[in-house]
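Folds vary. Our protein:
___
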Amino acid sequence: MTIVLMVKVYQMTDSVFFSGLILSFMSFASVAASFCISGVLHKLGFKKVLAGASLLRAVFALLIAYSVSQDGIAFYIMTLLFVFCFSFSGAFFQPARFALLPVIVSKEHYVKANGVISLANQLFLTAGWGLGGLLTFAAPFEFVVGSAICLFVFSGAVISLLHVNDARTKRTAETASARSVWKDLMTTPIVRDITAMDMIEALAGSVWSSAILLAFTVAVLHETEVWWGIFNASYFIGAMIGSVIAIHFSACFEQNMGYAIIFSSLVMAVLTFLFAVSPLPFLCALACAAMGPFYQVRDICQETVLQEVIPAHKRIGMMAAKNALLTPWSGVTYSIMGLLTDAAGAKTAFISAAVLYGMTFLIALAQPGLSHYKRERHAN
């Protein structure tokens, strides 16, 4: 939906700025939704909200398809309004999914369950962006949007089949004010530091955007776009392998999640630096592939730690606030790293990313709640 919509708006307006507003309105919607997610989930329960979010996205996708197919500034404004509603509905999904997993999965299976979800996300993320880009140019607009609508409806139907105790999930959803949620996010040490790590990592990770990675491939390695594609594929293959490793060795990671986060952060810094200074594209591809497992293991362990340290009645609100903080910031990071690349070159940008990853390692190392993390201290 994101790819085909941005392409369609660009064709509609012949403006990169207006096309880019699509992402801006998606970010605004996520921030706005963070202030009401807790109350809605408390009233309706997780399953109804998850299924409803998917079905609402199907409806707004249909409305977007209509408005973006018309000419005129009025229909463009209407498109932005529908995009806002589309993303507002979708913003409920991640916090509800995050809070629902500990309800339907026993604690000893948190790491394995998060690993399975991460593996599925990587598989469909890889297929989704690749297939989306291909279908945008190879298939009619109506077919692409129609397929997305069918997938949203299918998602909602499958979620509605989940066996969930609605009374329990409603009790789990908090009713605290938005102010107290943001205060908890900033004052809970482990949550605050993991959020800071995620923000720094988002800035570092923006160096892997297609434009900067292509500039590095052409200007630094003096290679063709073929290697650019290989670097992307290598990382995603490594990420999927990392999810499989987390699933297979979940028992080991469950007892050493703090160390896994710290060590993975260090390895990411080292591998990014080696990628930046390596003169051979083959070694760069190996570094990309090696990053995938460590990034995924750290991400899975961080999510599991958050599920354990955040009280059940605060999970939704704090994750919604965290997402509201990270979503617009992620959009800004691409501009920051893009400006650095233009000013100092792609190689400097990657070295800077390695330094940023190193900062996340130091934050994790300095946080006693992570370095000495033990699962038994955080029993449900």
Summary: The chain has two domains: 2-172, 178-369.
